[in-house]
Amino acid sequence: MANRIFVSVQEGIREPEWLDAVQGFIQTAAGALNFDGEEISVLFCNDEYMQELNKAYRNIDTPTDVLSFENDEEYEDEEGKWKCVGDIAISLDTLPVNAEYFNEDTNAELKRLLVHGLLHLNGMDHGEEHIQAGVAPECEMLVLQENILEKLKDEIIIK
Question: For the whole prediction, is pTM greater than 0.85?
Fold first, then answer.
């Protein structure tokens, strides 16, 4: 069984021309994490909305690049049993800023944010450690993230 992937853009924001390619990438990345029969939603938003989410759910009054919200509810329909693993929010404002910081193109950075969000939905955490330019990660989650990204390096979302 495949996964159900729902991708949307915050109301009032222009839909990126690459939006349709996100679902396929998430299917591939979720498969690499052994997701099967799971429902995932992704929202692309601006920094202002991301700051509201960060403040409401983490008590941090600043925007961030990616947030994940685990759900773990299950339901059944005519296609089978599904597990709603949760939601990922990604800031379109921060995406190019991060890409510049990491000296990457926006395609590589978007893939990093999506995989990072999926790993959080898979119950992983990185504590206080964050990916830094030129520094190899040490914690299990970030090492796995970089390994998955290496395997998916030829996947293209943003051309």
Answer: yes
